[in-house]
């Protein structure tokens, strides 16, 4: 149980930080495609009898860089979609060649946070540190090229290179988080919490912290709920993330309606009516 | 004639009812998905298509739970999800990404719940793989009428909306200036997208349905700029890839390492992906030539047109 809490906490921190940049860059599709496609890597690894993490790592990196390079030519969303389905097609082939048991496929797709062993925490923590370190080192150029790519180019920050760096970070985050929350659900954590955080604050640093906090709350409450109700963790992670986004939207709408009501007299004053 | 084709078509290929059903449904689906796909690619809504396909997983598993055909589940959930995306704000370019992502995340959570309940109460082995990766050879022939009806609905929507949809896909401002109700057209188009993705899900699975939707359309749009020609070409590419996939999968029952048959979905997806890459070659070659010319004159290169 201690392992589960540690692992889930690490995952939530990374998902909160990487997710913030994902939402800022409007790269939700890539953040969905890379983890989802890396499923094929896990299936291939079990076919060859090697460690799942290796398969996940190779496929998520190749997928992410492939999307980055091919995306330079064709339309970005089209390339992402096709790279994703190609990887998943390979996954379908690997699955049909192995004699996999249904629960194993299920746990790859939807995660198995309650079955974490001691040996898995170490590699996850190491990958998390690398991930966060890359984001910290590249913080300013990454932020600039995400918000104002043209200004970034003018100041010598190559948009393409930043895109590749960002995709690598997503691939790293994928490799470490997939065994815990599964290929399909890391996405809800990476999009839901930062999207909610951004409706509460406009300042990037505050939003990152808030996004990590929301991700932590989502994961912790999901584990507790899953433990007591015996339902899958992934369901609760997705539900809490979606709920926090709904709250964020509600808060933003309420604040906007208040500020317009306050603003009307001022504008009337300005126009002299 | 049949003697020469014997190595291509495995024994009993033309006599099998399973193959007949697969060919009929596969053709319909490829045609519908490619037609809608051309608009999806032009509007830059591949993510919405992909998400609606994935969300079909929730509907498929839900359908297994209550014991109805998976196609009903796919259709119901993707129409509901399309409505949710529309409400959250998919029509605004900035909110599009998030609207799709949030709905997708929430729906996949539900899918996790449904699969868990399936495993606990129904012990329905194979449901996960069939829903996710599809299996065109297990489609019941009773599905054909429903598939025809849904395809007809989609094609009618596209035919009726053809001009306004085309204009609003190219330039929403221009369409609005001409008095086209852009939002209503977008919503109806989203309905057509949801239906065609649900259809694609029964042939190559929920998470691969994007291949039939985006692949042929993107390939066709790389070869021609004319929308009408592109729809025709996309339909042909989609149908060709599906047929070739079915033939290869049928043959693969005799292939090593296990004599169990490789999945149809794998063949269809791979053929489509290779065709897309090949279609980029002429363009690549043209830009190479143009760039070589430009460097001679000394004109700085453009940042690349997306």
Characterise the protein shown here:
The complex is a heterodimer of chains A (273) and B (306). Chain A has a domain at 2-191: ABC transporter involved in vitamin B12 uptake, BtuC. Chain A contains 11 helices and no strands. Chain A has helices spanning 2-25, 28-48, 52-70, 76-97, 102-110, 118-137, 139-147, 149-154, 159-200, 204-229, 233-271. In chain A, helix 1 (2-25) packs across helix 10, helix 9 packs across helix 10 (204-229) and helix 9 (159-200) crosses helix 11 (233-271). Chain B starts with a helix and ends in a 9-residue tail after the last helix. Chain B has a single domain (2-293), classed as ABC transporter involved in vitamin B12 uptake, BtuC (Orthogonal Bundle), CATH 1.10.3470. Mean pLDDT of chain B is 82; it is low at 297-306. At the A-B interface, helix 2, helix 4, helix 5, helix 9 and helix 11 of A face helix 3, helix 5, helix 6, helix 10 and helix 12 of B.
């Amino acid at each position: 149980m201690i392992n589960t809490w540690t692992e889930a906490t690490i995952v939530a921190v990374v998902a909160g930080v990487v997710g913030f940049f994902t939402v800022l860059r409007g790269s939700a599709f890539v953040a969905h495609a890379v983890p989802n496609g890396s499923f094929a890597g896990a299936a291939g690894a079990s076919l060859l009898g090697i460690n799942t993490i290796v398969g996940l790592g190779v496929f998520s990196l190749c997928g992410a860089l492939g999307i980055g390079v091919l995306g330079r030519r064709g339309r970005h969303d089209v390339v992402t979609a096709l790279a994703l389905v190609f990887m998943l097609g390979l996954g379908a082939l690997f699955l049909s060649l192995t004699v996999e048991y249904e629960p194993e496929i299920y746990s790859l797709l939807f995660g198995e946070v309650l079955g974490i062993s001691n040996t898995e925490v170490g590699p996850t923590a190491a990958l998390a540190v690398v991930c966060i370190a890359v984001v910290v080192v590249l913080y300013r150029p990454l932020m600039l090229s995400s918000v104002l790519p043209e200004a970034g180019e003018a100041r010598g920050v190559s948009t393409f290179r930043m895109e590749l760096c960002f995709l690598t970070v997503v691939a790293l985050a994928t490799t470490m988080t997939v065994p815990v929350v599964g290929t399909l659900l890391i996405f809800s954590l990476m999009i839901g919490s930062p999207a909610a955080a951004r409706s509460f604050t406009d300042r990037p640093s505050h939003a990152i912290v808030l996004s990590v906090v929301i991700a932590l709350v989502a994961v912790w409450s999901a584990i507790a709920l899953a433990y007591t109700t015996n339902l899958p963790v992934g369901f609760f992670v997705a539900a809490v993330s979606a709920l926090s986004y709904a709250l964020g939207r509600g808060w933003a709408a309420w604040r906007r309606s208040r500020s317009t009501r306050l603003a009307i007299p001022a504008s009337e004053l300005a126009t002299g009516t | 004639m049949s003697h020469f084709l014997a190595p291509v078509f495995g024994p009993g290929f033309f006599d099998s009812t399973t193959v007949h059903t697969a060919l009929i449904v596969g053709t319909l689906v490829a045609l519908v998905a490619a037609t809608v796909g051309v608009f999806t690619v032009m509007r830059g809504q591949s993510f919405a298509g992909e998400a609606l396909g994935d969300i079909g997983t929730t509907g498929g598993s839900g359908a297994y739970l209550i014991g109805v055909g998976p196609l009903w589940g796919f259709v119901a959930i993707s129409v509901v999800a399309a409505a949710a995306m529309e409400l959250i704000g998919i029509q605004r370019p900035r909110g599009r990404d998030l609207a799709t992502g949030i709905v997708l995340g929430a729906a996949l959570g539900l899918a996790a719940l449904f699969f868990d309940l399936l495993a606990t109460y129904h012990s329905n082995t194979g449901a996960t793989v069939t829903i996710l990766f599809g299996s065109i050879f297990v489609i019941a022939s009773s599905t054909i009428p429903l598939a025809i009806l849904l395809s007809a609905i989609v094609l009618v929507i596209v035919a009726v909306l053809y001009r306004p949809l085309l204009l609003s896909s190219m330039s929403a401002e221009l369409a609005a200036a001409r008095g086209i109700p852009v939002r209503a057209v977008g919503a109806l188009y989203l309905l057509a997208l949801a239906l065609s993705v649900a259809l694609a899900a029964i042939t190559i699975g929920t998470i691969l349905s994007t291949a039939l939707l985006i692949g042929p359309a993107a390939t066709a749009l790389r070869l021609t700029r004319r929308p009408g020609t592109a729809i025709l070409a996309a339909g042909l590419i989609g149908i060709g890839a599906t047929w070739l996939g079915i033939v290869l999968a049928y043959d693969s029952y005799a292939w090593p390492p296990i004599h169990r048959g490789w999945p149809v979905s794998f063949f269809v997806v791979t053929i489509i992906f290779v065709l897309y890459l090949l279609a980029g070659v002429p363009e690549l070659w043209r830009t190479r030539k143009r760039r070589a010319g430009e460097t001679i004159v000394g004109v700085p290169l453009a940042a690349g047109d997306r």
